[in-house]
Design brief:
Length: 235
């Protein structure tokens, strides 16, 4: 619950106005922490404590502790044995580049399995189109965590339908960290409708693309909006 009176000076580092949406307080705290990390106001290695979170967001220590425990399980916060509290996992530019390198390698394998000759892609395409509807509905909401999660659902569905269980497990190991990156990408996107269209083009590529183009197509898909090749008319 929120307290009356002036807000703590540290609140700006927790992204935005006081919590108001109708979710549990712990869920709101978790989302605010994710956004703070995604936007870089909480730096890699920075210590996070229950007291700090509770004071910054005007909540009790109980939801702060619950949110931090969930993020620790995801690997977004990590233990700090030499001091109290937890610390932010490494999301430096170098670490993100390494993460994308791994993601490109594993998703290239996943897409090759999905697009192998004779494989029925129709169940996957139907599922992805439903996810696209959700993504489109959320694109104007400003709920970056929800957009990040639905982005994860999109790529998780492709991994699951590949039939390569080990590849899907490896992808899932990256997913907890990709959530931070996805939230950052959605926050930085100048046109979120364009990001939805980007995923729609990926569905069309799965439907009728050339498997020989998988690596190049994914490389373009993963690139920042300003670095992507623009689709040709009619594609």
């Amino acid at each position: 619950m929120e307290a009356s009176g002036p807000r703590p000076a540290t609140q700006e580092s927790w992204v935005g106005a006081p919590i108001q949406r109708a979710k549990t307080t712990a869920e709101e705290v978790e989302e605010r922490l994710i956004l703070a990390i995604a936007r870089g106001t909480k730096s890699p290695g920075e210590r996070v404590t229950e007291n700090e979170v509770a004071a910054a967001l005007n909540v009790s220590r109980v939801p702060a502790r619950e949110a931090m425990q969930k993020l620790q399980l995801r690997g977004i916060l990590v233990g700090a044995p030499e001091q109290r509290g937890l610390r932010v996992a490494d999301y430096s530019q170098q670490r993100i580049a390494e993460l994308y390198e791994l993601r490109l390698a594993i998703e290239t394998i996943i897409f090759r399995h999905v697009m192998r000759p004779g494989h029925d892609r129709s169940p996957l395409i139907a599922e992805l189109n439903e996810i696209l509807k959700t993504m489109g509905a959320l694109s104007g909401s400003g709920d970056l965590v929800a957009l990040g999660l639905v982005d994860l659902d999109f790529h998780r569905a492709v991994a699951r339908h590949s039939g390569n269980e080990l590849a899907a497990e490896i992808w899932e190991g990256l997913a907890q960290h990709m959530l931070i990156v996805f939230c950052r990408d959605w926050a930085d996107a100048p046109d979120r409708t364009g990001e939805v269209d980007l995923h729609a083009r990926l569905v069309e590529f799965i439907r009728k693309g050339d498997a020989g183009d998988i690596h190049a197509f994914l490389l373009n898909h993963f690139s920042p909006p300003t670095e992507r090749l623009q689709p040709q008319a009619g594609t």
